[in-house]
Amino acid sequence: METLxxxxxxxxxxxxxxxxxxxxIYLNPPSDRIEPFLSLAVYFDSFNHERRHQFIxxxxxxxxxxxxxYNQGV
Length: 74
Known about the structure:
The protein has helices at 2-25, 35-49, 61-73. It is an all-alpha fold. It is globular and about 45 Å long.
């Protein structure tokens, strides 16, 4: 069972890195060493707060996080 969890996590990370490469890095090559960090911060902010994900039934990750945090506090 642990192998299945590890494989699922590895697959999700690979999908995320592929999205970052094709949507941010390849389309906007950095011109200096600071720019990649700033552009990735913007990308992950929109990835978590604005973008809806097919994997979680077209919901935003922040909505799921807030609901889980609220349920933990109750």
